[in-house]
Design a protein that fits this description.
Elements: E1 4-16, H1 24-37, H2 43-47, E2 49-50, E3 61-73, E4 77-81, H3 88-95, E5 103-108, E6 112-115, H4 128-138, H5 143-157, H6 172-185, E7 190-193, H7 202-217, E8 222-226, H8 230-236, E9 239-244, E10 247-253, H9 254-264, E11 279-280, E12 284-291, E13 298-301, E14 307-316, E15 320-329, E16 335-340, H10 341-344, E17 349-351, E18 354-363, E19 371-383, E20 386-401, E21 419-421
Helix pairs in contact: 4-5, 5-6
Length: 422
């Protein structure tokens, strides 16, 4: 149809494992004899296995992609989602004609500009300016057309001081900046962007997302975007395609695709939060701790989530009055935020002898940055002589925050229901 920009028709890519050049001549000869002379099906297509990188398998042939079919409309922004090894980059390499498919075909209308890895399309010995003209020529543009775009490219990339320096002396971030600017401003009909934007800083990521939105919305161009950053996918893409072991596992709206991926593809652990308690008063027994609606140690905070549920059930043989505290740490174990009713609101919990159940709805701040965070849970009481801990779980759980691009360390006042950013 006229509004279809890209058609993936039963695309498959078969790879042979092991060292290149070892035992391949006999395979190639057999394949040629079977397919060209006898007109039979390729014998190695049948023995290929799915690309499960965690297990050795029984075959030297694996399918990086298998029977992938979907269409992308002109002006549509589609996010390709999946775990490492799902086939996302392979699919984009076939679309960019870096490699060819083993089965099926891809039909694309118009010029394709790709940014698949750091330094894509650059010659290290050539200057940044020379590489811009070279990439324009590859896309079929005249020198005059590239010259009209030159100042915009240099300004967007922010590398004016180094534009006449050989690219081999650029940092990874500078190469990504210039590479994206070249791909975006030289007016391709289809822009293909892999995970490479993760190399850039937060400011450049925002600029890049905004530029890709302008390309699709204002200029009617098509964008294929691969990222593990679910917040970026949600912000940019209109539709999502989830790949699993080389095949399409789900296709739908961005929100539905992200929800499906988070619920079905992330590896969850069955470990319980209550099993990660480091210190516990001898008169307390804990039956269950739930954070974010689960008693398991891994969960996800959605980008639009307002509250984080916290609850603890157990028994005590002595009464106590305590403060409920929850701390957020980044993966480098740096404290990023804390929730403490007693410290910030003066709210204490009085627990009587017998069974008890404590529940809290923690009002999350408006801005949460995406990433993985470790949680510390504590029930304590502050006195003049120090802190008495009734329960302390130093690293009891991990949450993946979809979040936004704003920093998590923004100062927050105590009016945030006891939640404070550090």
């Amino acid at each position: 149809m006229s509004d279809i920009a890209i058609q993936f028709n039963h695309v498959g890519k078969l790879y042979r494992l092991g060292r290149v050049g070892t035992g391949t001549f006999s395979h190639d000869l057999n394949r040629w004899w079977q397919t060209k002379i006898l007109r039979r099906e390729d014998p190695y297509l049948k023995i290929g296995e799915t690309n499960d990188r965690a297990h050795k398998g029984n075959s030297d042939f694996v399918w990086a992609l298998r029977d992938v079919s979907f269409d992308v409309k002109q002006g549509e922004v589609v996010g390709i989602i999946g775990k490492n090894g799902a086939g996302k980059s392979t699919l984009l390499k076939i679309l960019s004609r870096i490699t060819s498919p083993t089965t099926g075909e891809i039909r694309a209308r118009g010029r394709i500009a790709s940014l698949l890895e750091v330094g894509t399309g650059f010659h290290g010995e050539m200057t940044g300016r020379e590489n811009i003209y070279m990439n324009g020529a590859i896309l079929g543009m005249t020198r005059a057309e590239v010259t009209r775009k030159l100042d915009e490219i240099i300004d967007f990339a922010g590398v004016e001081r180094y534009i006449d320096t050989p690219v081999k002396r650029y940092s990874s971030g500078m190469k990504i900046r210039l590479g994206f600017a070249v791909a975006a401003f030289l007016e391709p009909d289809i822009l293909v962007v892999d995970e490479v934007l993760s190399v850039g800083d937060a400011e450049f990521k925002r600029k890049s997302i905004g530029k890709m939105q302008d390309i699709s919305r204002d200029e009617g161009r098509t964008v294929l975007f691969v990222s593990h950053n679910m917040a970026a996918v949600r912000q940019l893409c209109q539709r999502g395609v989830v790949l699993k072991e080389g095949s399409v596992d789900f296709s739908g709206t961005t929100d539905d695709a992200i929800k499906y991926y988070l619920e079905n593809h992330l590896e969850k652990t069955n470990e319980l939060i209550k099993d990660n308690i480091d210190e516990l008063a001898p008169f307390i027994t804990v039956n269950k701790i739930e954070i974010n609606g689960t008693d398991k140690t891994e969960s996800t905070i959605a980008a639009n989530q307002e509250y984080l549920d916290l609850s603890i059930n157990g028994e005590t043989t002595e009464p106590f009055v305590a403060n409920i505290q929850l701390r957020f740490f980044n993966e480098n174990h740096v404290a990023m935020a804390t929730y403490s009713e007693g410290a910030y609101k003066g709210t204490m919990v009085a627990v009587n002898v017998g069974s008890f159940s404590i529940s809290r709805k923690i009002h999350l701040p408006k801005y949460l940055s995406t990433g993985d965070y470790l949680l510390e849970f504590e029930i304590n009481r502050r006195k003049q002589q120090g802190i008495t801990r009734f329960l302390w779980a130093k690293r009891c759980a991990k949450v993946h925050v979809e979040g936004s691009f704003e920093p998590f360390c923004r100062p927050l006042s105590a009016r945030w229901d006891g939640f404070l950013g550090l």
